[in-house]
């Protein structure tokens, strides 16, 4: 066969490999019912279906797990022990799978050192940029610090002075602690430098001939003379000047000077110094706050130190100094410090009638550090701390304790001299404080010399590329120094997505988990375009999603159902969007609007009372005064990063918690909250797991299990055997199987492979001793009951009101498919949130509770959202108030009252765009929410 034929045959094979779909046959992970699917390569496939139908089981636990497992298996056993080990999914056959990457909704890191900049590697490239083209600027004179050399010194002389100018080449008399001046002069004579020049009078002392009294020689006025020269540009003279300067540098320990005859003295140094200060030459390590060399010594690179919390000392930054902005000086005991401050202010014209937040850095510095007779806030607290042997002083100090910005590095985290290095007049800390949008602008418009451009070309390409992707995924409002642990799940996921785009891999399989979470409908298009570009460069994109826009944009759609849990796990549709609209599936019905969530006929009037939050100014909030009318279903909306979570979670919820009881976390800055007396309690229903332990399950969480155990212990058989309710618990010794301690499985750790979980041999996975399993209620033992779904259990215990009242709410929020004994860690975030909601629905009506929900539609299908809205309706009708942060238009249109925050994210957000009913919001020109609401109303 000829060479050409072989090549063309190989190309055909490669081409057929590229087009070969991913084939999955006989998948049985969790509730999947032996399903077969085919996923086209290099296309975008969306997997949709009701919550709990098995979407994640197919996408993550089957396809991603197998792709990742095969990749890990291909590595050496040494490398494998450092990687997350994955179980082999329960599937008959898989073919055509690529190396897989999962981009999930979990906050990337809980590390207090990890920031948006370090996670995306932008900060690492910035360190390199500053080390290579940064200019070190002296803080004293503001001049650029540079090293001199023989070459630069000659160049300066030729540029500044005329030809024929006479000058001396000199160096200072060396100083040695152990040698006296006489010894030094003797050494200089021996070395061949017998002449000294008086720097002002310009008279020369010859050590060999002149009678010299060393007591009269003041070393600072004399220099050692190396050579007398006249400036000429011919080669001979230049080489003589160069030789003399080199000698002077060597003998002068890296420093020398040139004295122009009857003129000034020019000082040169081969060291990196200026204004009598020596600086470190920039290196990448110097700008790293995660490296002992680069981190600030005081705060060790955290940017904060334990001490006095500025927010507690100045609780109302919109107050003036005269009106008592400094809280510790408002009391009678320490008011003398305020009087001292007012005197100093009058003397130095300090603006004490300006709100604290508007004061300049210099004035704030005086307030904190003191001036003249005014002691200063920081020294005042040092004094209080020194008297901590007195109980009242300890109590006073503890009232203002917290974390404050590090005084040494000013919160920038890096060592002081790293902040002297600047690029375009900004040091690395100032750039890290910028939002991604501003940083992108800064790096696009850098003014550099041709040499700097050449050095920084590749570095800037990497920085700009990463900033562009972060901006495009809708994160322009995040600052580069924002801690990674403070990001929401959706933000973390979009950062991972931008990182994946930046890596420009091809031929991979990307599996994403609801990337539109936390995104306003305005930003969906940008996200969809990014996923398409990931597909277009040659990757297969698999998205688990409910968003109609995302489903519409997919090349291929797989709908799993028809219902949830045991009633799901089948492929009910496979094809494109047009065909889905005609299909009889729930997704098809909602997308084609044959089925829809109705707009409420009228909005509730509420109870007439309100909770009012005044002066909210945490993060980007602009001194907001917001009213939350009680007895209504309230929706807080706005684009990502506009300040919704800061307003609702960090400020309102935290402040109410503090008033109602003990709350230890940090509370967002605000003036006051009024109207809390109108509510009895407050509940935050978020998506954190209902329990981290595999022993926690829906039955134990809703307390239905207590009733079930009582029921079993009251049977005739139990009475004969002497069994108590505790014998029917798998958490305590007594009736549980002691071999597996009631887990039903035994874990066997493997060195280089995934740990193996085997069914317990003793109890056969049933968790209980054989004699306890003999006890039956209506023909079922305790294990059979735990294996029932919630719906089956409600029918089975129909006469037992104590149990059904606990379980019915689970059915109402659409979780009838969950098994009573399903372990808590296997529930999705949306399921966990609805289990909590069900627990609250089962509470007796009476007390007025204020419920907070954060994006409760996460992971929910249209059908589930309809059920969720019914649950909210029930809570409000029972006299409670529900406040939710949400982007889903079906939920927003069902609210009684909307608070729209914006208009943009980050600095351009934090204002109230409008409040009122959904109909009133649609009339607002500036409201993005209003524009999209118009279409659904």
Automatic annotation (TrEMBL):
Compartment(s) where it occurs, according to its Swiss-Prot or TrEMBL record: Cytoplasm
Main location: cytoplasm
A Pfam family recorded for this sequence: UvrA_inter
Segments of this protein annotated with the region Disordered: 1-22
InterPro entries in UniProt: AAA+_ATPase, ABC_transporter-like_ATP-bd, ABC_transporter-like_CS, P-loop_NTPase, UvrA, UvrA_DNA-bd, UvrA_inter
GO molecular-function term, one example from the UniProt record: hydrolase activity
Boundaries of every ABC transporter domain copy: 258-593, 606-934
Keywords: ATP-binding, Cytoplasm, DNA damage, DNA excision, DNA repair, DNA-binding, Excision nuclease, Hydrolase, Metal-binding, Nucleotide-binding, Repeat, Zinc, Zinc-finger
Family matches, as CDD domains: ABC_UvrA_II (cd03271)
Biased composition (Basic and acidic residues): 7-22
Stated family: Belongs to the ABC transporter superfamily. UvrA family.
Matching PANTHER family: UVRABC SYSTEM PROTEIN A (PTHR43152:SF3)
Protein name in UniProt: UvrABC system protein A
């Amino acid at each position: 066969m000829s060479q050409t034929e072989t090549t063309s045959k190989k190309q055909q094979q490669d081409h057929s490999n590229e087009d070969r779909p991913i084939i999955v046959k006989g998948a049985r992970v969790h509730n999947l019912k032996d399903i077969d699917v085919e996923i086209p390569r290099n296309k975008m496939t969306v997997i949709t279906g009701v919550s709990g139908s098995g979407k994640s089981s197919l996408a993550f636990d089957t396809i991603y797990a197998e792709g990742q497992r095969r990749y890990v298996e291909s590595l050496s056993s040494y490398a494998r022990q450092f990687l997350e080990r994955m179980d082999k999914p329960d599937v008959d056959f898989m073919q055509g799978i690529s190396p897989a990457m999962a981009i999930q909704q979990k906050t990337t890191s809980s590390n207090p050192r990890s920031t948006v900049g370090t996670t995306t590697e932008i900060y690492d490239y910035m360190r390199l940029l500053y080390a290579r083209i940064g200019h070190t600027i002296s803080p004293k004179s503001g001049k650029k610090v540079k090293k001199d050399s023989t070459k630069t010194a000659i160049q300066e002389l030729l540029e500044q002075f005329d030809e024929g100018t006479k000058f001396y080449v000199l160096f200072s008399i060396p100083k040695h602690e152990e040698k006296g001046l006489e010894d030094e002069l003797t050494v200089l004579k021996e070395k061949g430098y017998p002449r000294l020049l008086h720097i002002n009078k310009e008279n020369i002392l010859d050590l060999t001939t002149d009678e010299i009294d060393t007591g009269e020689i003041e070393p600072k006025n004399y220099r050692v003379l190396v050579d007398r020269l006249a400036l000429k540009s011919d080669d001979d003279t230049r080489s003589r000047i160069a030789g003399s300067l080199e000698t002077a540098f060597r003998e002068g320990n890296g420093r020398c000077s040139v004295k122009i005859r009857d003129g000034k003295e020019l000082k040169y140094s081969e060291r990196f110094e200026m204004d009598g200060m020596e600086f470190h030459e920039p290196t990448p390590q110097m700008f790293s706050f995660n490296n002992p060399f680069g981190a600030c010594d005081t705060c060790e690179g955290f940017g904060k130190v334990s001490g006095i919390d500025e927010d507690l000392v100045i609780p109302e930054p919109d107050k003036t100094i005269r009106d008592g902005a400094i809280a510790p000086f408002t009391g009678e005991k320490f008011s003398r410090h305020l009087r001292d401050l007012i005197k100093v202010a009058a003397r130095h014209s300090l603006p004490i009638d300006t709100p604290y937040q508007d004061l300049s850095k210099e004035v704030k510095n005086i307030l904190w550090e003191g001036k003249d007779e005014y002691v200063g806030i920081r020294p005042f607290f040092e004094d209080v701390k020194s008297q901590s042997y007195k109980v009242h002083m300890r109590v006073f100090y503890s009232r203002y304790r917290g974390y404050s910005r590090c005084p040494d590095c000013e919160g920038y985290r890096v060592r002081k001299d790293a902040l002297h290095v600047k690029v375009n007049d900004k040091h690395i800390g100032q750039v890290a404080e910028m939002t991604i949008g501003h940083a992108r602008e800064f790096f696009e418009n850098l003014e550099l010399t041709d040499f700097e451009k050449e050095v920084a070309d590749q570095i800037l390409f990497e920085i700009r590329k990463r900033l562009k992707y972060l901006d495009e995924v809708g994160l322009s409002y995040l600052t580069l120094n924002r801690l990674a642990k403070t990001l929401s799940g959706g933000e973390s996921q979009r950062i991972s997505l931008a990182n994946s785009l930046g890596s420009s891999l091809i031929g991979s399989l990307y599996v994403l988990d609801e990337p539109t979470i936390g995104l306003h409908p305005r930003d969906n298009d940008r996200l969809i375009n990014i996923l398409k570009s990931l597909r277009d460069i040659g990757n297969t994109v698999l998205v688990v999603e409910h968003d109609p826009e995302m489903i519409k944009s997919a090349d291929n759609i797989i709908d799993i159902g028809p219902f949830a849990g045991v009633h799901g796990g089948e492929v009910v549709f496979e094809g494109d969007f047009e065909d889905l609209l005609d299909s009889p599936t729930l997704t098809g019905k909602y997308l084609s609007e044959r089925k829809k969530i109705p707009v409420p006929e009228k909005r509730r009037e509420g109870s007439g009372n309100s909770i009012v939050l005044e002066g909210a100014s945490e993060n980007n909030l602009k001194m907001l005064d917001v009213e939350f009318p009680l007895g209504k279903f309230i929706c807080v909306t706005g684009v990502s990063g506009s300040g919704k979570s800061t307003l609702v979670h960090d400020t309102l919820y935290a402040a109410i918690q503090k008033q109602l009881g003990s709350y230890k976390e940090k509370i967002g800055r605000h003036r006051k909250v009024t109207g809390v007396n109108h509510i009895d309690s407050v509940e935050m229903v978020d998506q954190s797991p209902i329990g981290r332990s595999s022993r926690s399950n829906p039955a134990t969480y809703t307390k239905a299990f207590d009733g079930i155990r009582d029921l079993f212990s009251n049977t005739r058989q139990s009475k004969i055997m002497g069994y108590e309710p505790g014998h029917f618990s798998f958490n305590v010794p007594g009736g549980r199987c002691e071999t597996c301690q009631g887990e039903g499985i035994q874990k066997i750790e493997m060195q280089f492979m995934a740990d193996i979980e085997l069914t317990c041999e003793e109890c056969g996975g049933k968790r209980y001793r054989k004699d306890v399993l003999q006890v039956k209620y209506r023909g079922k033992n305790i294990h059979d009951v735990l294996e029932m779904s919630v719906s089956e259990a409600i029918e089975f215990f129909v006469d037992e009101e104590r149990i059904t009242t606990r379980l019915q709410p689970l059915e109402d929020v659409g979780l009838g498919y969950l098994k009573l004994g399903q372990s808590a860690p296997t529930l999705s975030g949306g399921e966990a949130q609805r289990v909590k909601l069900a627990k609250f629905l089962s509470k007796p009506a009476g007390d007025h509770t204020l419920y907070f929900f954060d994006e409760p539609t996460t992971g929910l299908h249209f059908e589930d959202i309809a059920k969720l809205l019914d649950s909210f309706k029930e809570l409000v009708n029972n006299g409670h108030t529900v406040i939710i942060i949400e982007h889903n238009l079906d939920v927003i249109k069902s609210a009684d009252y909307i608070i729209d925050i914006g208009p943009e994210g980050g600095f351009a957000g934090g204002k109230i765009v409008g409040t009122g009913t959904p109909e009133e919001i649609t009339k607002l020109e500036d409201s993005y929410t209003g524009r999209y609401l118009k279409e659904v109303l």
